[in-house]
Amino acid sequence: MRFGLIALAALSVGGAAAGGCGRDSGEVASHAAGAAGTGYPARASAALSHRDRPGADFADDELRKPADVLAFIGVEPGMRIFEMEAGTGYYTELFSRLVGAEGEIVMHSPPAFDAFLGDAANRRVDGRLDNVRISKTSFDSLDAADGSIDLVTWMLGPHELYYRPNGGDPLGDVATTYNEIARILKPGGVFIVLDHAAAVGAPETTGGIIHRIDPAIVRALAAVAGFVFAGESDVLRNPQDSFETNVFDPSVRRKTDRFLYKFVKPAE
Questions:
Q1: How many CB atoms lie within 10 A of CB 261?
Q2: Strand, helix or coil at 128?
Q3: What residue numbers bound the domain in which 156 lies?
Q4: What phi, psi does 231 have (nearest 5°)?
Q5: What is the domain count for the chain?
Q6: Can you tell me the distance from the alpha carbon of 190 to that of 229, in angstroms, rounded to the nearest whole number?
Q7: b/e per residue 70-79 (b: at least 16 CB within 10 A)
Q8: What is the CATH number of the domain that holds 248?
Q9: pTM higher than 0.70 for the full model?
Q10: Digits of tens for pLDDT over the chain (268 positions)?
Q11: Start-to-end CA span in the chain (Å)
Q12: 3-class DSSP assignment, residue 135
């Protein structure tokens, strides 16, 4: 079912504690403490209802609540966004419309994910989203210049640092990955994390087994990399979740408790 766009007319941060970022450190700091920028509801409505948006994306809207998530993130026209672990491009499509022709999206995934993503990224982008560049690197070697990115997003991803595809090598060194995110962000840039919550106190290795992570681990790693916690949203929280169940188990699939955090790289 398509997302009810009526609610967009009254969108604000709502349950979100913080909003977007701008192209310089002063603007970023201002946005990080407030709501999405002027004109956001109309821009979000246009992106969500765009006639070229795939039908499968519309079908996912009710569970993924993109209007609320995007309001929390605060995407602005002209932004450069590095989308870690972009998957098949559900958010890539929306980011592309929201940043416009002056913005740029880097649609990233680790090469190891080709085994199950196939050519999904190319099918999403080619001939459709001119402001999107596809990148395939490990998490600890991001394909962007120092201080060149306004916003990094990592949707349903940090737990993957503890996953070893087919029992092989990890997808990136943990500490180096968080340092890489800090490296590519501009001073005042924003880092957004969305992931499946594990039980409080669950070890890091849980990420490679049931594909969840204790939110405290993410906050601690981000802090070590120099990020400042700037807010969270409870729009995707589900306290009735079974926190020790694999996210792909039919009993919890697509109904997990998901935490949504915002961090800011301090202005220099």
A1: 24
A2: coil
A3: 5-264
A4: 150, 170
A5: 1
A6: 10
A7: bbbbbbbeeb
A8: 3.40.50.150
A9: yes
A10: 222 322 333 233 333 333 333 333 333 333 343 346 568 889 999 999 999 999 999 999 999 999 999 999 999 999 999 999 999 999 999 999 999 999 999 999 999 989 889 999 999 999 999 999 999 999 999 999 999 999 999 999 999 999 888 778 889 999 999 999 999 999 999 999 999 999 999 999 999 999 999 999 999 999 999 999 999 999 999 999 999 999 999 999 999 999 999 999 999 7
A11: 45
A12: strand
* HSE-up (13 A, CA, CB side) for residue 189: 21
Beta-carbon count within 10 A of 52 CB:
8
25: its two tokens: 């450190």
User: Which 3-state string (H, E, C) describes 38-63?
Assistant: CCHHHHHHHHHCCCCCCHHHHHHHHH
Locate tokens 């968080």: which residue?
178
Q: Is 28 helix (H, G, I), strand (E, B) or coil?
A: helix
